[in-house]
Write a structure and sequence with these properties.
Blueprint (H helix, E strand, L loop, with lengths): L1 H20 L4 H16 L3 E9 L2 E8 L10 E3 L3 H9 L3 E3 L21 E9 L2 E10 L7 H19 L18 E4 L1 E4 L2 E8 L14 H25 L4 H14 L2 H12 L4 H18 L3 H22 L13 E5 L4 H7 L5 E4 L7 H9 L3 E3 L4 H4 L5 E5 L4 E4 L3 H22 L15 E6 L7 H4 L5 E5 L2 H4 L7 H15 L4 E4 L27 H6 L1 H15 L4 E5 L5 H20 L8 E7 L2 H4 L3 H6 L2 E5 H9 L17 H17 L2 E5 L6 H9 L4 E4 L1 H13 L2 H13 L6 H14 L1
Parallel strand pairs: 9-10, 10-11, 11-12, 15-16, 15-22, 16-17, 17-18, 18-19, 19-20, 20-21, 21-22
Antiparallel strand pairs: 1-2, 1-6, 2-3, 4-5, 5-6, 7-14, 8-12, 9-13, 13-14
Helix pairs in contact: 1-2, 1-4, 5-6, 5-7, 5-9, 6-9, 7-8, 8-9, 13-25, 16-18, 18-19, 24-25, 24-26
Length: about 750
């Protein structure tokens, strides 16, 4: 029985290939194909539905249903049995369609006389392209062999769709990679950019989905899998004694040697698919499973299989990661995900970055911020929709990507870029002026940094110092712990480049979403509240000591400022400060030159530290409010969770009152205080922070001009009154009141 279906499947695929090779227009090809499938499977109906847009399916061809309904019948994703197949990317097989859950009657098609229904997704590497349906009057459930045969056909249809075999009239049949696409994501780094797509991993093009000789294709697959296994073994030997890398590669090895994986691909080849198409069919199934599996560990394992399939496809097609394509002008990187080291390899050549995965706190986001490159994460479908060289516009303020935009969108976007460029020119004229408000108060504006490449911005932005130098980047981009001498040399270069301006070095802030590749990850239910930052440093004093030694030696007699991250209680600061004192004493005994003066401070990122004993505020030499973490803990709103991260306003009166309390405690004890984080670089937020008493703000270099410009136009005493009046009126946020004040000031000048 199986052999008969495999033979019939090969015959059908051969006829499909002939239809694909014909000179017929797209619609004629589809009509021929539905006729071929219906005849071969002995069904009265065969229909092909393709996506008209992201949420709508359109009937594009049918054998057996009313021809007048073609390009007229449409349904939303999840609507009816067809919509259910598309949404779940799973087969629906029922002998009694009208009684099946979710059935939707479409009278214009004339399908009410057909009882049995079999629908399979048309998908390519997990990306849904449409649905293939067969129906019969007889009430029967289709056999497993028939389902498998239809899945094989759907795989070929997906490849044909990808190759543009069905291009014709109507949105659902237009060339898939020629339509304008608007995609939304999460802002990882603000900014706008226009350029051309550069795919980090160019898609593999399968131009031969159907094969005549199953034996030859099986030999090709077995040979390629053999090479894959050798490469995995080589990866394992190169991992050395790194247990974590070994575990990942062992998972690869398990899949590469999986008999079930190999058997399923060989079955697809027996049905008439080429080796490449067989791999893609199995990969599509794995991708579809990934979206349905709630368990994170199983999702990760399926992701390993997905990556292994890509490697196998590149071996089979010869389309390696180096395709010979030339990077386009103004490249905007598009990838499913990317590591920090790979991103640093691209450097400042990139105009922007768009990731299908990632997170706002990922390693890639940290590097993008350090390089001041606009970044969007969680941009679904981007790697499926984009091709190398496509025109792309990235709006890192609104979280929008315009792929292949039409002229009107492109024109409006360029107007926005031009307005921002004109504003930057205005800011340049006040670069060397103080951020002095009309009331006479002066606010120091510092910049955040994490790479040597950031330091030239100290001069060009007008920053008065580096309020935060993230030291973890040098740890994240390596496969092993950096040496003390390497760190000391880097920190010395940072101090040299600062030319005497204050640089606040934050000690290693790892854990949570920043896991070192050479440290064993901890499976924590909520890593943002787990073993991270100062907690890691105190539990691993050798790492902290090594970094403190490197900082002391880098100073070499110059002033040194060190800040400990994520301090939650006084005891943690005291323990860390004691480690600093012991390291200083040891360096002195070894004959190293000590810093001429040293400041040791802490980041206030947890609400608990705001209520520490007065003695803490008296002992700590400075505090820096880490706004990104503090806000998420204050509102109990995970900043990685899109459903809640924008729910609470920074200018909420409760949050501002809390910050005012911190300002008061620091004022009372004479403790230097700054605010560091994304919100410090937003002009209206920065104005409010200054109004409630912050006199040092640290932000990305590009924000200094806009913040300084607004501060110089406003009176902080007036803004403070606006804030307090809004609070007295019982308003939840002061944003509207402050914005009204700002507009009035702008109109008066």
């Amino acid at each position: 029985m199986v052999e008969r279906f495999e033979t019939e499947s090969r015959k059908l695929l051969g006829r499909l290939r002939d239809a694909m090779a014909s000179d017929d227009a797209g619609q004629e090809r589809l009509d021929k194909i539905t006729h071929l499938i219906a005849t071969s499977m002995g069904c009265e109906v065969c229909s092909i539905y393709l996506f008209r847009d992201e949420d709508t399916l359109e009937l594009c061809a049918t054998e057996g249903l009313n021809k007048a309904s073609v390009h007229q019948t449409r349904m939303k994703l999840g609507e009816g049995l067809v919509g259910r197949v598309a949404k779940r990317k799973a087969v629906v097989n029922t002998p009694d369609a009208p009684q099946a859950p979710g059935f939707r009657f479409m009278p214009e098609t004339g399908e009410e006389i057909y009882s049995s229904f079999l629908g399979v997704p048309i998908q390519r590497i997990g990306a849904a392209l449409g649905v293939l349906v067969v129906q019969s009057r007889t009430a029967r459930e289709y056999s497993a062999d028939e389902v498998y045969a239809l899945e094989v056909v759907a795989m070929v249809l997906a490849e044909m769709t990808e190759l543009g075999a069905f291009v014709g009239d109507g949105a659902a049949m237009s060339a898939r990679h020629s339509q304008p696409v608007l995609l939304r994501g999460t802002v990882g780094q603000e900014g706008v950019a226009e350029g051309h797509v550069w795919l980090h991993e160019p898609r593999v093009v399968v131009s031969n989905p159907i094969a005549d000789d199953p034996e030859t294709e099986a030999i090709r697959l077995e040979s390629a899998v053999g090479l894959l296994r050798i490469s995995v073994d080589q990866m394992l030997s190169m991992a050395g004694g790194d247990k974590d890398q070994q575990q990942v590669i062992e998972a690869y090895r398990m899949f590469a040697n999986s008999k079930g994986w190999m058997r399923r691909m060989l079955e697809s080849i027996s049905s008439g698919l080429s080796a490449e198409a067989a791999v893609e069919k199995e990969q599509s199934t794995a991708r579809a499973r990934m979206g349905q599996v709630p368990d994170a560990y199983l999702r990760e394992r399926l992701s390993d299989l997905d990556d292994l399939s890509n490697r196998l496809l590149r071996i089979l097609t010869g389309q390696g990661s180096d395709t010979g394509a030339e990077m386009p002008k103004n490249p905007i990187l598009v990838a499913r995900n990317i590591g920090p080291a790979e991103l640093l390899d691209y450097g400042r050549k990139l105009r922007g970055i768009v990731l299908e995965g990632g997170s706002v706190g990922s390693h890639a986001a940290i590097v993008a911020r350090a390089l001041a490159i606009p970044l969007l994460v969680h941009v679904g479908r981007i790697t499926d929709d984009a091709l190398n060289g496509d025109h792309i516009m990235l709006d890192g303020e609104q979280g929008i990507v315009h792929l292949r935009p039409d002229d009107s969108v492109a024109s409006a976007f360029r107007d926005k870029i031009a307005m921002q460029a004109a504003a930057q020119e205005r800011y340049a004229s006040i670069r060397d002026e103080p951020a002095q408000a009309k009331c006479g108060s002066i606010v120091q504006l510092h910049m955040n940094a994490g790479l040597m490449a950031d330091l030239p911005s100290l001069q060009s932005s007008g920053a008065e110092g580096v309020g935060l130098f993230r030291t973890e980047l040098q740890f994240l981009v390596r496969n092993q712990m950096p040496k003390r001498t390497e760190l000391a040399a880097l920190y010395a270069r940072v101090l040299d480049a600062a030319q005497g301006k204050r640089v606040v070095f934050r000690t290693l802030d790892i854990g949570s979403d920043k896991v070192l590749p050479y440290m064993k990850p901890n499976d924590e239910p909520n890593p943002a509240l787990g073993w991270r930052a100062i907690r890691v440093g105190l539990d691993k004093p050798g790492i902290m000591r090594m970094q403190l030694q490197a900082l002391i030696r880098a100073a070499n007699g110059r002033p040194l400022t060190v800040m400990f991250p994520f301090v939650a209680q006084f005891e943690e600061y005291r323990d860390a400060r004691a480690e600093m004192d012991k390291t200083m004493a040891r360096e002195e005994r070894l004959g190293h030159v000590l810093p001429s003066e040293i400041e040791v401070g802490a980041m206030l990122e947890t609400p608990s530290l705001a209520f520490a004993p007065r003695k803490f505020f008296e002992e700590v030499e400075f505090l820096s409010v880490g706004g990104n973490d503090l806000k998420q803990f204050f509102f109990a709103a995970d900043r990685e969770n899109e459903r809640v991260r924008r729910r609470y306003d920074t200018l909420n009166v409760s949050y501002l009152s809390f910050l005012e309390g911190i300002v008061e405690r620091c004022r009372d004890t004479g403790t230097s205080l700054s605010f560091c984080g994304e919100d410090a670089g937003r002009p209206v937020e920065a104005l409010c922070f200054a109004a409630i008493g912050f006199r040092i703000l640290s932000m990305r270099p590009a924000s200094i001009g806009p913040v300084k410009s607004l501060l110089r136009r406003c009176n902080l005493d007036d803004v403070r009154r606006v804030i307090h009046d809004a609070r007295d009126r019982g308003e939840m946020s002061v944003r509207a009141a402050v914005m009204e004040y700002v507009r009035a000031q702008s109109a008066a000048q």
